[in-house]
Amino acid sequence: MGAMRMLVVADRGEDDLGYVGERLVRRGIRPVALDRDDLPTLEEVGPVDLVYLLGSGRSVANPVEIDRVAGETALINAALDAATPVLGICYGAQILAHALGGTAQRATRPELGWFSHESYDQALCPSGPWLQFHGDSFTLPTGARLLGRSESGPQGFSHESVTADGAPARALGWQFHPEVTPSTLARWLRVENAFVNGLGDPEVINAEAQRLNPQVRQAAYELADTALGWLLGREVASAEAS
């Protein structure tokens, strides 16, 4: 049996899989990177086992992004119609909620830094602390299960449906960033300085990333294992020693 294939949807140059993707690769999943600005159809990509939506500095709610959002929404819906599970992080969770019928909008409380949230499912949405790095939020689509929340809004949700063929279609979104590595975070803090200014001290956030890194990496691995099992509806053996 060949390796499973995972579509990684990201902005150009921002397709670092992070700890979550690193763990999925250890589970025998082969990543295929796609540029959000030039997405193929699911038919053009061929058979896939998972879609992984990464974050973005752009906004689902920005009218300027309407064509880009429509293209990614079509890919998400095509995947779910084909019973291919979808995992979204931050912007990825926002556009996943949008594709399923929820909404994305500017957050009343942007979040930047390392925070814990209120969890309603410690397996699929553990309370953290996790990195928060977002100015947008989202509302849950109909039928979704809220997995966690903060004062800013939902922090995690799951959604289950059935395809026309009767197959299960599962989606999971996290507003927080379990995937982020210290080097990626340091780059975000430099690149997104307009967002960062006034919300937090980059030196403090970077120092906290270094301090928390061992436990964050392990927690991200465990979360990736749990999420993959839930999304696929079965346990997946590791392709290499953990």
Class from helix and strand fractions: alpha/beta
Q: Which assembly state applies to the chains in this document?
A: single chain
Level-1 CATH class name? Alpha Beta
CATH topology: Rossmann fold
Shape: globular
**Looking across the biggest beta sheet, what order are the strands in?**
2-1-3-4-10-9-8-6
Q: Which segments are poorly predicted (pLDDT under 50) over 5 or more consecutive residues?
A: none
Helix content: 25-40%
Helix segment tally = 7
Would you tell me the overall average pLDDT?
A: 94
Largest sheet geometry:
8 strands, mixed
**DSSP E strands, number:** 10
Supply the CATH architecture.
3-Layer(aba) Sandwich
What is the C-alpha radius of gyration, as a whole number of Å? 17 Å
| CATH homology-level superfamily | Class I glutamine amidotransferase (GATase) domain
Content of β-strand: 25-35%
| Series of H and E elements | EHEHEHEHEEEEEEHHH
Measured distance between first and last alpha carbons: 21 Å
Tell me the count of domains.
Answer: 1
